[in-house]
């Protein structure tokens, strides 16, 4: 597997947590303090995604990338950037087990920690498939003694016709929880 430096990581849907916390912080803090809180959230956020098919762009007729029917792209970017490796297609539970293993290893999230979770569809993945992934994610975290403060399952960060999903974990402390829990309302995202 390619070595990735932290600053090279693109994430996929972790930005949903970032925008939520940044917006809440901006509503009651100075710009400098809101920046500090948002940077803290960024350091406590991990995302990994898998792709089963490439996305298309409106002006193109072919997908950005193609995969053999029995392979998936692991660690890809939302705009079709290549992942860190290609692997054979697996069952949903196996995919989630590997994704969570990497997330926990890289983030140092461990027993007793509290997280928010987000399972995001990349464009053409059904809600049913995302819920299957979320079920396994919740089981793994419970087995590892990691508390889940909030869960979200949706398709907010997508690319046209891309099949796949991502899992994001945000490790909370009291300060981040305060801003995460503040109510917000937008056309596609509401909390509180």
Q: Can you tell me about this structure?
A:
By secondary structure, this protein is an alpha+beta fold. The chain has a single domain (9-182), classed as Hypothetical Protein Tm841, Chain: A,domain 3 (2-Layer Sandwich), CATH 3.30.1180.20. The protein has five helices and eight strands, in the order ααβββαβαββαββ. It has helices at residues 15-26, 31-43, 92-107, 127-143, 174-181, and strands spanning 45-51, 71-74, 85-88, 114-121, 147-154, 164-172, 184-185, 190-191. It has a six-stranded mixed β-sheet. The protein has a two-stranded antiparallel sheet with strand order 7-8. Strand 4, helix 4 and strand 5 (147-154) form a beta-alpha-beta unit. The longest helix is centred in the last third of the chain and has 17 residues, at 127-143. The protein is globular. The model has no long low-confidence stretch (mean pLDDT 90).
The residue fraction in helices comes out at 25-40%
Identify the strand order in the major beta sheet. Answer: 3-2-1-6-4-5
User: How many strands in all?
Assistant: 8
Strand content: 15-25%
The radius of gyration over CA amounts to 17 Å
The CATH architecture comes to 2-Layer Sandwich
CATH superfamily: Dihydroxyacetone kinase, domain 2
What composes the largest sheet? Answer: 6 strands, mixed
How many helices?
Answer: 5
**Low-confidence sequence ranges:** none
Mean pLDDT, nearest integer?
90
User: Which CATH first-tier class would you pick?
Assistant: Alpha Beta
């Amino acid at each position: 597997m390619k070595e990735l430096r932290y600053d090279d990581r693109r994430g996929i849907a972790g930005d949903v947590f970032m925008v939520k916390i940044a917006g809440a912080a901006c509503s009651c803090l100075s710009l400098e303090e809101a920046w500090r809180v948002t940077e803290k959230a960024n350091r406590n956020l991990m995302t990994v995604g898998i792709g089963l098919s490439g996305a298309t762009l409106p002006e193109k007729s072919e997908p950005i990338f193609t995969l053999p029917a029995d392979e998936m792209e692991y660690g890809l970017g939302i705009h079709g950037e290549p992942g860190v490796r290609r692997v054979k297609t697996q069952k949903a539970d196996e995919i989630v087990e590997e994704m969570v293993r990497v997330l926990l290893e890289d983030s140092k999230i461990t027993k007793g920690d509290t997280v928010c979770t987000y399972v995001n569809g990349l464009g053409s993945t059904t809600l049913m498939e995302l819920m299957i992934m979320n079920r396994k994610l919740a089981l793994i975290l419970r087995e590892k003694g990691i508390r889940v403060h909030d869960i979200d399952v949706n398709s907010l960060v997508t690319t046209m016709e891309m099949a796949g999903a991502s899992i994001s974990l945000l490790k909370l402390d009291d300060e981040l929880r305060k801003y995460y829990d503040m109510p917000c309302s937008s056309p596609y995202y509401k909390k509180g």
